[in-house]
Amino acid sequence: MKTESEILLEARDLIAKPEHWTQGVAARSASGAFVMPSADCATSFCMYGAITRTSAKYCVSTESLATELRMTLHGPAIAEYNDAPNRKHEDVLSMMDATIARLKAAGR
């Protein structure tokens, strides 16, 4: 069974390239249309969409992973963080990295 940090790392890998990250919706197809994160045609994801897709793969609660990310943010919803107008791709990756590091340090 994968640990929370491993699952979050896999979610991070989904959005590691800027062209695979999006804002405003959970997931988009290559044409930019809104799709469900679980859709085969999904090619870009917001942070929440990435954890939704990855958590489903391992039958882990999306909300438990979202809670871990919110703990790193000290409260705000991760969709609000991801979708902030001035938010940069590297900001999202750094925040996910901090959460992954915290979970790894705790053996999770």
SSE topology sketch:
Blueprint lengths: L3 H11 L12 E3 L12 E4 L1 H11 L4 H12 L4 H6 L5 H17 L3
Helix pairs in contact: 1-2, 1-5, 3-5
Largest sheet report: 2 strands, antiparallel
Order of helices and strands: HEEHHHH
- Count the strands? 2
Strand order of the largest sheet: 1-2
Q: Kindly provide the radius of gyration, computed on alpha-carbon positions and rounded to a whole number of angstroms.
A: 13 Å
Count, helices: 5
Distance between the termini: 11 Å
Task: Report the portion of residues in β strands.
Answer: 5-15%
- Given as residue ranges, the uncertain stretches (5+ residues, pLDDT < 50) are none
- Indicate the percent of residues in helices: 40-55%
- Shape category: globular
Secondary structure class reads mainly alpha
What's the mean pLDDT score?
Answer: 96
How is this structure best described in words?
The chain has five helices and two strands; from the N terminus they run αββαααα. It is mainly alpha-helical. The longest helix has 17 residues.
